[in-house]
Amino acid sequence: MFKKVLIAEDHEIRNLGVINTLEELFVPEFEFVSYCDAALKKVKSAITEEKPYELLITDLEFDDDFVEQSINSGQELIAEVKKIQPNIKIIAFSIEKKTQLIDELFHGLGINGYVSKGRNDAKELKNTIKRVFADEIVIPQDILNSIRNNTIEVTDYDINLLDSLSRGWKQHEICAHFKQEGLQPNSRSAIEKRLNDLRDSLNARNNIEMIAICKDMGIL
Q: Residue 80's domain is classified under what CATH number?
């Protein structure tokens, strides 16, 4: 089992559950920090002292307060930690449900596990820690199913199109905007066809539902 663990979490009530989990797993050394900057500093210090952390458990969202921070999210923290200690194991522990964002955590940032906060999260965290220690990549089944079912490939063009639509713009307004910005294709018929394709791919009944789905998925 891991011998040295760092937890980045700014809600004390959550820390109690994590403490119980780590104690049940007989992890001998673990520390908590409430800020991403502090977490990165501890990782750097541990490397300098040649006593590096073996596992980082981090939330993704941290509340703003009076303490100014250069790193404000778990995603940024993960990226910075990976730069200086590429082999550290990382588990994201968050309420986040957007499949595209979670997929990026695995394929873009190379995390080892993800645990959704909520009912039975202590049991899931314990199981995930054990599996990550055994060199497994752990994605919750519901998240995995959502990622597998999401076969749509969204381009930068699509994001511009969907963002314009979410602002309440009509198709002729989007057409004029795309022409002004030099985005192709920018004809009204091409824009209408792409919107139809996106609705079909997302199983959306209308544009309003499509925008809501895209927000849930983290596309917007």
A: 3.40.50.2300
β partners of residue 58: 8, 92
> Pick from 120, 149, 178: which residue ends a domain?
149
pTM of the model: 0.68
Number of domains present in the structure of the chain: 2
Per-residue tens of pLDDT for the chain, all 220 residues: 999 999 998 776 566 778 889 999 999 999 999 889 999 999 999 999 999 999 999 998 887 777 778 888 899 999 999 999 999 999 999 887 777 788 888 888 999 999 988 777 888 899 999 999 999 989 877 666 665 555 567 788 999 999 999 999 999 999 999 999 899 999 999 999 999 988 888 778 888 888 887 876 667 7
- The pairing of strands 89-94 and 55-58 is parallel
Nearest C-alpha neighbor of 198 from the set 149, 158, 150? 158
Q: In which element (H, E) is residue 56 found?
A: strand 55-58
Residues 80 and 182 in one domain: no
Q: Are residues 14 and 63 in the same domain?
A: yes
181 and 142 both lie in a single domain = no
- Alpha-carbon distance 143 to 147, whole Å? 6
CA distance 96 to 130: 22
Contact call for residues 11 and 37 (beta carbons, < 8 A): no
Residues 30 and 125: their CA atoms lie apart, in Å, by 15
